[in-house]
Design goal:
By secondary structure, the protein is mostly helical. It contains 15 helices and no strands.
């Protein structure tokens, strides 16, 4: 008994033969084609990115009674400590009106940057099981840290807004426009450094500890618990003051404080702050491009190193 060939099978084989081949795997080169391919893979795996963000948030507060309240515990504790120790004992609050709102705005801004960088740095190693077993764009792991940091930032922002209403100075003012470029600068620089450090941390595990020390230095080098006016009155060299002021993190924190700290409307601030933020954003985009290219170059041996 002979079996007649299935005509539909031949049609399927023809369609398969006509389907163009698509390379599967991580892009490791520095050519524009590799950058486009990496971006395309990220868009294709956007649902995976969403799942990783949700997983990070759920894992952080798993089996916790208070849940997301703990995302406020650290900044609120920092606020209480700095308000009492720095503001009252060291008399920093004497020259800064509504010191609690001022310091919480700074803590919220720098907390976003710190959480992005530190979370992204350990993201590849923290997901080593996925990296070694399945292919997904490696960038989704640092970017998932960015997403979870933005979620926590949103919770702290609600508390900051509530604080401005409590002191009777809600941020319904033109200066509120500084909030958007300030947050964008923080996210761009945090993402760029997070991509770079996450790749380097795979090859040199000391990077994560260096990042923790670096973020601690940046905290005290930024006008969070003290004002820019204090720095300008102490630093006599105009060059050193410009170097300090034009630090993107400093500019973003000052801009964020300017947006929500209503009592500081007449407080001395750097000139042309919006222009400085715009220049910092352009430089940050270039830095993000460079760090992404370095990430692409280093990601080829992630599975072997892990």
């Amino acid at each position: 008994m002979s079996i007649s060939p299935d005509p539909s099978a031949g049609a399927r084989f023809e369609r398969l033969a006509a389907t163009p081949m698509r390379t599967v795997g991580a892009a490791t080169g520095l050519r524009p084609h590799d950058l486009w391919r990496s971006t395309r893979d990220l868009i294709f795996h956007r649902e995976m990115l969403d799942l990783l963000v949700r997983r990070d948030l759920k894992a952080r507060y798993k089996d916790s009674t208070l849940g997301f309240f703990w995302s406020l515990a650290r900044p609120l504790m920092q606020l209480a400590i700095y308000y009492v120790v720095v503001g009252k004992f060291l008399q920093a609050a004497r020259g800064i009106p509504d010191f609690a709102v001022y310091i919480f705005a700074g803590l919220t801004a720098i907390g976003l940057f710190t959480e992005i960088v530190t979370g992204a740095t350990g993201s590849i190693i923290g997901n080593s099981g996925l990296v070694k077993k399945v292919y997904v764009p490696r960038e989704v792991f640092p970017l998932a840290s960015v997403g979870s940091a933005l979620f926590n930032f949103g919770i702290q922002l609600v508390v900051l807004l509530a604080a401005t209403f409590l002191v009777g100075k809600p941020p319904f003012q033109p200066e509120l426009a500084y909030a958007i470029p300030s947050v964008v600068v923080l996210v761009v620089y945090g993402t760029a450094l997070g991509l770079l450090f996450s790749a380097l941390n795979v090859y040199l595990r000391d990077v994560q500890y260096l990042v923790e020390l670096g973020t601690m230095v940046l905290f005290w080098a930024s006008p969070v618990v003290y004002s820019w006016q204090m720095v300008s009155s102490i630093v006599s060299s105009p060059l050193l003051l410009d170097i300090y002021t034009n630090n993107p993190l400093t500019l973003a924190i000052i801009g964020f404080q300017k947006a929500f700290w209503g009592a500081g409307a007449d407080f001395p601030q750097p000139d042309h702050l919006m222009l400085r933020l715009g220049v910092s954003f352009v430089v940050g985009v270039v830095l993000l491009f460079v760090c992404h290219r370095v990430f692409l170059r280093l990601q080829g041996n992630f599975a072997q190193e892990l």
